[in-house]
Amino acid sequence: MSAIHDVRLSTEVRDALERGLPVVALESTIIAHGLPRPRNLEVAGELERLVRDGGAVPATIAVLDGVAHVGLDEKALDRVAFDEDLRKFGNRDLAVALGTGASGATTVSATASLAARAGIRVFATGGLGGVHRGWRFSQDESADLNVLSRTRITVVCAGVKSILDVPATLQRLETLNVGVAGYRTAVFPGFYLHSSGEPVDWTLDSPGQVAAVMRAQDVLGGPETALIVANPVPENEQLDPALHDRVLAGALEAAEREGVTGQAITPFLLDQLMRQTGGASLEANLAAVRGNVRLAAEIAVSWTTG
Ligand code: PSU
Ligand code: MN
């Protein structure tokens, strides 16, 4: 019986949490499956530096050889970026992975639950998963939504990926009781795009205001839901909307033609967009993630010092 069951905090993350210092969780799927090599390793390092520059401790999360790591050292980050055998783990995969000694990058759903388990309250990513176009037939809705409906964590993101059915995703978030607020905007962001065109009910204007909402969540108690802080990519760094729409239509057709489904569809579409925009979608994606990571650090600081 050699199965390992372990959620392991790095010394730095454990120490920060014990001392009540700000910590920001980062996911690893975007590194392993969302960005091309070797740029992905650069980005992994850059995101951690941005968290530190903002006065918080980064906790990148991944599962390596059956151990769920919260906070990765340089060697582990390198493995996440370059190990081609690394799988993609949603929350439901975690127990099987830990029980069998498997390795994989964690999606928003897996990262959010491991972060919350470790006591981390703020998490930054690019764009959430959600309801896929064609959901009527595929029933494909990311497990990100389900986990956020029962995990007390604040997720800073540029909305949901624009490859999805955005209005349907917003509707599901309402049904699932997940709080959604635009950060300094009344319009839900569109991941690669500054705006998705969909309105949001709430606008928050400062990290302090976000932290106040988080404290109110705790005062009110259950259900233990997440708070989504939707932070748009700056307009001057977004992907050209006309190019986006044109290329996305082609990518969706390619996915259909090649029969791509399940976990493979999100990485497939992101990769198609990157190729068909000559890398412009990648730059917009990175601009969005950087902004989210910076804001998450500010929120984590407000949360721990307020
Ligand atoms: N944000 C990005 N790039 C990504 C993702 C988020 O900028 O690749 C990942 C997240 O890990 C998210 C996942 O949870 O895509 C959604 O995958 P799926 O649709 O299979 O649930
Ligand atoms: Mn899916």
Structural description of this entry:
- The mean pLDDT is 96.
- The radius of gyration is 18 Å and the shape is globular.
- Helix 10 packs across helix 13 (280-305).
- It is built from 13 helices and 11 strands.
- It has helices at residues 11-18, 29-33, 39-53, 74-82, 93-100, 108-118, 135-138, 143-148, 166-175, 207-220, 241-257, 265-276, 280-305, and strands at residues 6-9, 23-26, 57-64, 67-70, 87-89, 104-106, 122-124, 154-157, 179-183, 202-204, 227-230.
- Strands 1, 2, 3, 4, 5, 6, 7, 8, 9, 10 and 11 form an 11-stranded mixed beta sheet that branches.
- The protein has 2 domains: 1-120, Indigoidine synthase fold (3-Layer(aba) Sandwich); 128-306, 3-Layer(aba) Sandwich (Indigoidine synthase fold).
- By secondary structure, the chain is an alpha/beta fold.
- The site of pseudouridine-5'-monophosphate (PSU) has 19 residues, from helix 2, helix 8, helix 12 and helix 13.
If you compute it from the alpha carbons, what radius of gyration comes out, rounded to the nearest whole angstrom?
A: 18 Å
Mean pLDDT: 96
Which structural class should the secondary elements be placed in?
Answer: alpha/beta
Global geometry: globular
Helix % is: 40-55%
**Approximate strand percentage:** 5-15%
| The first-level CATH class name of the largest domain | Alpha Beta
Enzyme class: lyase
EC number: 4.2.1.70
Cofactor: Mn(2+)
Protein name: Pseudouridine-5'-phosphate glycosidase
